[in-house]
Amino acid sequence: MKTLIKVISIGVVIAMTQSCSIFEQSTSPVNATTSVTKGSYMYGSEVSSFQPCGTEKELWVIGDETITGELHNDYMEMVEKPYEQVFVRFRGHQLEKANEGFAADYDGQFKVTEVVTMQKDDICQ
């Protein structure tokens, strides 16, 4: 019986280790430096996308719940309806492409640590 418990315990530890390594792969920074990046942002049902100025990449926006909650609220106060483009300056960094969920449909992810500015005027020109 003790042998069976040891085998099960080892199996649980291995499974937990593997699941952690999968999570780490999907959130590895492409560029580990946190800097201010400007671009366009759009939000709506199942959409939270950021396109840095001068790129064709569409990135899924992630961040702490407090930051993303404020981002979404500020966005909805600024626009007349969801899916309208606004221009932002985000402090954060780009992450690798997600493996699952809505984020997997994007070129990568952008982890926002601060919303520096948000406006309707184009700042990419």
UniProtKB/TrEMBL annotation:
Pfam families named in the record: NlpE_C
The NlpE C-terminal OB domain, residue ranges: 33-125
InterPro entries on file: NlpE_C, NlpE_C_sf
Protein name in UniProt: NlpE C-terminal OB domain-containing protein
Organism: Kangiella spongicola
